[in-house]
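Escalated from tier 1: adenosine-5'-diphosphate holo job.
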Amino acid sequence: MSSLFYLNKYLVKYKWRLILGTIFIFISNIFFVQQPEILSEAINTISGQLESGEENTRELILKTALTLSGLYMLLAVLKGVFLFLTRQTIIVMSRFIEYDLKNEIYDQYQHLSFNFYKKNATGDLMNRISEDVSKVRMYLGPGIMYTINLFFLFGLILYKMISKNPELTLYVLLPLPIMSILIYFVSRVLNKKSERVQFQQSLLSTIVQESFSGIRVIKSHVKEKQVEAKFNREAENYKRNSMNLAKTNAFFMPTIILLIGISTILTIYIGGLQANAGTIERGEIAEFVLYVNMLTWPFASVGWVTSIVQHASASQKRITEFLKEKPDLDENANEDKSVVFSESINLNNVSLTYENSGVTALNGITLSIKKGQTIGIIGRTGSGKSSLAYLLMRLLDPTEGKIEIDQQELAKLNLERWRHLLGYVPQEHFLFSDSIKNNIIFGANSDEISDEEVYEYAKNAGIHETIMHFPEKYDTLLGERGINLSGGQKQRLSIARALIKKPEILLFDDCLSAVDNETEEYILQSIKSDLTEKTAIIISHRISSIKYADTIIVLDEGKLVEQGNHKELLAQKGIYYDTFKRQEIQAKEENKKP
Ligand SMILES: Nc1ncnc2c1ncn2[C@@H]1O[C@H](COP(=O)(O)OP(=O)(O)O)[C@@H](O)[C@H]1O
Ligand SMILES: [Mg+2]
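Tier 2 regenerated the structure:
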């Protein structure tokens, strides 16, 4: 329950809607509880008129009936109007809070670092912002509304009944405690069962989703039957659980109606005795019967509301967990927006150990990257190349050692500014489900980008020709509803996106791996001419991507093992030399192929 206190700040923010909504609920209930009195009035007046035996009885009765039923309807309309206003305030408030909460979570997501995303599954992140928030909204909207309604309605009805006839009230309310206990227990059972159903449902949709996205694997391994059998098994479980829930549910409403029925019988019996004795009028019996029935729905909804509250508090607990998560990089360490890079990037004895796996990906790296230089970084898979890129992007901070930009420590610079200087093409490229043009423009620092500029950078990335061959050229949609690009095309598009940013420093993480040698050469040449003043850090496992670099470093198991230019490194006859020889033989063999 206490996790829901977190939402109080939003209730305070929208306090006027909540207060107004509460007032509207009260007013609508005031009109509602007048209705039984009108009925009682009608019965009493009409039976009086019947017994009086006057000549114009018919007209009198008609008149009473018309006025009182008119009044009754007027009350119903007024009640409806205020019910409408209640929904307009409280339900709308819950929608506003839903919106705010989603923004708050989304904002937090944007600030949380790389490590957080490695730790938490995407599905989980999605669930917090969609399912969990909507469960919380159910509490803020219907949950709060029905609870307030129950209190007012019960209070008003109790007041009406007691002021009319305390003795009858006592009898009428006799079954109520039993009802409350029953509702409490049944709703607990209902909650447990509906949780099981929900769990089974999400299991089922995971199976379905995986069998669709993995359809190629399933078909190629001829596993359709097994997958189907698994689905059937879980679907069967789902059916059993749902039936089980339906049974309890089916038992719930009739029980309430039975108890209300007992109340009604008691009212009529005791009321009848009292009317016989002349202590009350006949109309009052009808009035009390109506009161009792008016309480049915609010009481029946108690179970539902408790389950809403329970779900919401579980959901809010999960949400708060994420909101409390502190970004592990201090992004605003320096409010000073200007970050200049005019001399060099220096790594002093930098090491990086991943918290989760305990792997030391980088071990005592000391390196200086001068402005304007092109640096090549080469090494086997797992040698720590990408980790070095993460450090330079400051997606992670080193566990030991320091990275300095000019003379300033990177960790003390304004992160946003620093990242603006870098054009990073990650190893795992990612494109949005949007047009090719928008995917390129995404990288730009300014909003005003002409088409010509987009073409120019696409040309530099060696992808312009390919794009022009698509039927819709730069407006071609990518992703789920669009076309699929090949690995090399995606890489080149990611490069165009980095280039259009006009960064000071280019950081390519193995992003030419799926591009053929010729295109690779072309891209490297075209960015070189664009790069006279700029710094480039090119990570690769292929010699061809980096052999022109001013300095090449070789990483092996996280250590910097060789350093120099292409010629120097070949002369050293170390890892670089071996790699070169091996790749040369491979290239020759490939050329021999028809
Ligand atoms: N997010 C991570 N969490 C834990 N270990 C990681 C993570 N990323 C990389 N590693 C580990 O760090 C080492 C270096 O990986 P990486 O920098 O990706 O190498 P490369 O890019 O040269 O292939 C590997 O042993 C890898 O398993
Ligand atoms: Mg890598």
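The pocket of adenosine-5'-diphosphate (ligand 1) is lined by residues 118, 354, 356-357, 359, 361, 379, 381-387 (CB under 6 Å).
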